[in-house]
């Protein structure tokens, strides 16, 4: 019995040693196989083992770093996705697409102000990227969404006034309503201006700006 326990222990130690003897290249290959099988969690684990065991003085595989970022994004581990996409970008591997996915990861975390900074910088950094349209669309969508909040509040303020009877619509109340609504329009306007700076032909932003300008000029009836 003691012999069997000793033998089991020795076999266990040998198996452990074999498992620990994998090279970074082997871990990377295991990661590639798991990625191909769409086992993103396992792929990421193998890529991170490859990174941890990477030989000093040997240039890191930038494609592997990018793949690690993609796996992290697929399993919605956005912090690690941002970490590895940033590293891939610094290594100049698919830098424009890595930047797009950094922005997307920030968006998925609800960090849209950080997303905006990444995207606005990307428009200057990658003016010829084939992904520029995707970046612009994400940025414009953000501006329209943010602008619509105070814009809709202003619309509701005027709707409340317009639902009053003629006798209730005094000049004093009109003036107070205009001041209150215009404050909201002024909050909304910069967002729609930014949307147009990215997409000058955006119909929604143009329409909103026209209505805002009419209200600020006192054309509201």
Describe this structure in words.
With 221 residues, this protein is mainly α. It has 2 domains: 18-128, Alpha Horseshoe (Serine Threonine Protein Phosphatase 5, Tetratricopeptide repeat); 134-216. It has helices spanning 2-20, 24-36, 40-52, 62-74, 78-90, 95-108, 112-125, 132-162, 171-198, 203-216. The chain starts with a helix and ends in a 5-residue tail after the last helix.
Oligomer: single chain
Number of domains: 2
CATH-level-4 superfamily name of the largest domain: Tetratricopeptide repeat domain
What is the strand content? under 5%
Tally of strands: 0
Return the CATH class of the largest domain.
Answer: Mainly Alpha
CATH fold-level name of the largest domain? Serine Threonine Protein Phosphatase 5, Tetratricopeptide repeat
Mean pLDDT: 91
Q: What general form does the structure show?
A: elongated
